[in-house]
Amino acid sequence: MSEEQWGRVDDDGTVWVRTAEGERAVGSYPGAAPEAALAYYTRKYDELAGQVTLLEQRIAAGQVSGNQAETSVKRLAETVPGANVVGDLAALSARLEALTPLAQARKAESERAAREARERAAVARRALVEEAEALAAVPAERTQWRADGQRMKDLFEQWRTEQRGPARLDRRSEDELWKRFSHARTAFDRKRRQHFAHLDQQQEEAKAAKTALVKEAEALQTSTDWGPTAATYKRLMDQWRAAGRAARKDDDELWGRFRAAQDAFFAARHAVQAEQDAEFTANLKVKEQLLAQAEALLPVTDLAAAKAALRTIQDQWEAAGKVPRADVERVERRMRAVEQAVRDREEERWTRNNPEARARAQSAVDQLESGLADLRSDLERAHARGDARRVAELEQALATRQQWLEQAQRALSDFGG
User: Fold this and answer.
1) Are strands 22-28 and 14-19 parallel, antiparallel or unpaired?
2) Number of H helices, E strands in the chain
3) 243 near 213, Cβ under 8 Å?
4) Host domain of residue 299
5) pTM for the complete prediction?
6) By CB neighbour count within 10 A (0-12 exposed, 13-18 middle, 19+ buried), where does 20 fall?
């Protein structure tokens, strides 16, 4: 349609727009041709129509939120009827009226999405709070401080990220969850400070105890009282282990000093013992010769001669002196074996000539022989009666007693005579 359909220009330059309600002055363009004046206000209409078209496109494409869509439609709907333009204002109003339910639907959809986003945000925030509270509730002795501390930091960063996100909680929920989260962080930090303060105290106590042990160890490192000092170093080592750990730097420095003192003592002892072992090698040769003489006495056939020879060997053994430490147990064990063999032979001889033991053995033989005689008499009577069951019992008893008698006779024969 032509521009004249929607408006006209008076001789004084006043521009009018035609509407369903009648004409309405929209402005004036004095000194210009009527066509130019009308074209000016028509262009203003086109600009207004362009805004409506752009709004239609953005709402259709979902590029504006529900609230923005509804607000924009309402604003334009209020602007169009009184706009100072020339054009089909009724058509623009109709288009805006058609946009109203779509904008309302977009608003409802946006509100639903925002509500769901807030619910998801609330769930995420509660998960962060609950995990933080769980970390704060772990007893100090079971807390993995490095890992759990880093996790608490991560939770805080996640909280800040959630807080900056598009989904915002209502103020009451936000404040309540933050109060719980902050309380959990504070409790965790307080527990960590207390733990490390206690750990620092323990480390200081361990440092003090180990410093004292180091001083004692260093005072002993030049000792030549080898046995007692070695035992003291063992005791100091036990106390060192029981003292606990100091701070790493202190612990390493103190251990270095302790170990150096201990090594100095044992190195000196080893050097002295090595020198002694060299001196004792000659003694070892003498004792090995004496061992050969002692072991030649076995088995013992003449007890008196063996005892006399062994006494002489033992005197020479003591006079020979010490042997290298590595050989002490070996040669002593061999000599003890010879001495034990002689003692066993002496015990055996005493047992064989013990009158009381021989009398007990003879008494056992006599009792068994008497019992056998009684059993034989009972067996003859059972045969005479034809009592087969009794005969079998007596024969079994007789065989058993006969075995006992043979054992007792062998024991008696060990006494000789």
Assistant:
1) antiparallel
2) 12, 3
3) yes
4) 277-352
5) 0.43
6) exposed
